[in-house]
Amino acid sequence: ALLIAGRAKGSAAWRIQNVAVIGFGVGIAATGAAPSFGIAMIVMFGLGAATAAFQSMNATLTLASSDVAYHGRMQSLLQLGFNLFGVAALPLGLCADSFGLRKTLVAMGLTVVVVGLVSTLIYKTKVDTKEMQKLFDKMGIVASKEKTEAVFAIADEDKGGEIDFDEFCKFIVMFKQEDATGFKYFTSAFDKGGAV
């Protein structure tokens, strides 16, 4: 867990998170498909590692993405998520009774793998200036090309010409922070009429 928490910056953190989710799903499905108890125990070792990696990185990313003033609240929400495991036990138990434990475990595992793959695709999505212009248009914000490029330049930290997921998250946090380097800096691109 300490090794995982120490890698909670940049794209490596999200890669670890998504690999852990997919590994968790594969582990659950493999447990359901295991032909013997001995093989299931070996699978459980990998499943436990994926679970620990996911839980550690999930908590670390959640706290790293939130303001320090809200860390206590975020920890509470994380704990509520763990408490929902008990609520999920009833429908999963009913599925296991109706369809069999092995089929239920395989279905659960495949569902988690799909969620992990979708998360990976979302993470790889990038935004360029044209897409930002379309977003402004959909939001009803009147923006010139020059001003859109100025706002885009604020979010594009690595100056790669695209905003990746990490840059987008940082930009949203900066936008919400009412300080000289955040909200006021962003809104300097807006004129008094609300246009960009």
Question: What is the strand and helix layout of this fold?
Answer:
Elements lengths: L1 H4 L4 H24 L3 H28 L6 H29 L1 H24 L4 H11 L5 H11 L9 H12 L6 H5 L9
Helix pairs in contact: 2-3, 2-5, 4-5, 6-7
Task: Using brief descriptors, characterize the structure shown.
mainly alpha; 9 helices; 76% helix; 0% strand
Task: Please give a quick description of this structure.
The chain is mostly helical. Helices cover 76% and strands 0% of the residues.
Q: Roughly how many Å is the radius of gyration? A: 21 Å
Number of helices: 9
Q: Order of helices and strands, N to C?
A: HHHHHHHHH
Largest β sheet strand count, sense and barrel closure: none
Low-confidence stretches: 179-183, 191-196
Distance between the termini: 45 Å
How many strand units? 0
Question: What's the shape?
Answer: elongated
Mean pLDDT: 81
Computed structural class: mainly alpha
The level of helicity is over 70%
The fraction of residues in strands falls at: under 5%
Structure overview:
The chain is 76% helix and 0% strand. By secondary structure, the chain is mainly α. The N and C termini lie far apart (45 Å).
